[in-house]
Amino acid sequence: MMASKLIKPPAVVQLLKRNGITMVHLYDANPEALTALANTNIKVGVSLPNQYLALAAGSTLYALQWVQSNVKAYPGTKINHVAVGNEVFHQQPELTPQLLPAMKNIQAALVSVGLADAVKVVTPIALDALTKSFPPSEGQFRDDIAQSVMRPLIDFLDRTGSHLTFNYYPYLAYRDHPDQINLDYVLFRPNKGQLDKGTGLMYYNMFDAMVDAVFHAVEKLSSSSEHGRGRILSGSDSSASFIESGSANGGGTTGPAAADNLGEQKSVSAAATPANAQTYNNNLISKILRGTGTPYKPNAVISGYIFSLFNEDLKPGDDDERSFGLFYPNGTPVYKVDFVNPGPAPATPTPTPAGSSWCTANAAVSDKQLQDALDYACANGADCSAIQPGKTCYQPNTVVAHASYAFNDFYQRKSGTCDFNGAASIVYQKPTGTCDASAPAAASWCVANTAVGDTRLQAALDYACSNGADCSAIQRGGRCFDPDTKEVHASYAFNDYYKRNGRTEQSCNFDGCGSVVHQQPKYGNCVL
């Protein structure tokens, strides 16, 4: 970290634990940090910096010594990857020929010390490795690296069981083109979205668009592997890993008082505020924890790291590069980020217990604003099946009524998210005329048929979770993980799928594994 007055590694580890941070990526292999992280159960990534790339590429002995000194020497630290270089094509393109040889030598060293299964070799890539990132369907790698570098690099990642890793920065795209990009689109806030005419898919945030541009770019490559198209190129690996994503906070670098030092922020974008950074990072974390994938790859498993842990007053480059931190170097938070139960940054008071507050449409705003927010809610987790033609809550057929239904469904699912850029508000008395899709006419649930056995239930459960059901609540730590039985997990997944698909009899079939009931099921503390 390039920061003065930075707290010591043991204090940093305590900071990580207090905030529920379970993975960290280091930009070197700092001995103090690796020692402090031992026996903490925190997964750690270490880096071979760009300045050592040529040495690692040219000498298997150097690579072996580096791995022995910086990985094997810390058996109590859960090192899970080595990042070889950082944004080489972008930062030091002259080192491009050395990148893959260095990765191969580090991999060989890991094999020789018996750590290749536990520690994977990756390299973070900047998005300008693509010639174009929007629309996503036109994403492709630059001609100078596509076949000569990216194809063999991806083959290497395939063979070693590793992953392609990128750095995604919607903030930087907005900073450079504020007149062309909607800030709400950058921050995961309600917006009218962007259509990819190549696929017909709508994008409501730039992060998803960037990730899908990489998916499309990878699919355009042909593999050089002797065994044909590998796991990544064939599309069977729908994971999306990133080493960096974040947003500048513009809040000073050494502590809250430094925010008044305008001299150090002369070139910082107006979008670089603690509130915007908080919104972006909380919404990104929430997206990852929900497991919603992307429009093009809805089942993609996304994982990565927020950049960065601390503001860095000693970092060279653009002024805003110094203020991406979640914390000041002394450990004081720049703003609150929740790595366990994030949700978007609250713009409204925290609601009272579930069932005693509702999110309703603001009829004073324009129909267009309501429609944009309605589309956003339905595309980002709200179950809007009940307001489709012929369904329980389609009437009254007005934008206000439909928006109120969608907003409230989104609000109840997201534990208190009701803003929609002023298009909605929280009320504490049930609004007159509120349509309840679970009223008697639609009071039905889909539950597991235990007679078919656990094997069939698991297959049907996997199908439901892979085809639209939100299964985050039955993951470890979720509200319906316990009781930890196949019946409970399958019932939850089946019922969520059933609700999202109009509560039709067919949507609760699952090849005989599901059945409709008309009394609300309850399993322990889990109520469907």
UniProtKB/TrEMBL annotation:
Protein name as it appears in the record: X8 domain-containing protein
Keyword Chloroplast set for record: no
Keywords: Cell membrane, Disulfide bond, Glycoprotein, Glycosidase, GPI-anchor, Hydrolase, Lipoprotein, Membrane, Signal
Span of domain X8: 357-437, 444-528
Main location: membrane
GO biological process: carbohydrate metabolic process
InterPro entries xref list: GH, Glyco_hydro_17, Glyco_hydro_17_plant, X8
Cellular component annotations (GO), alphabetically ordered: plasma membrane; plasmodesma; side of membrane
Annotated compartments: Cell membrane
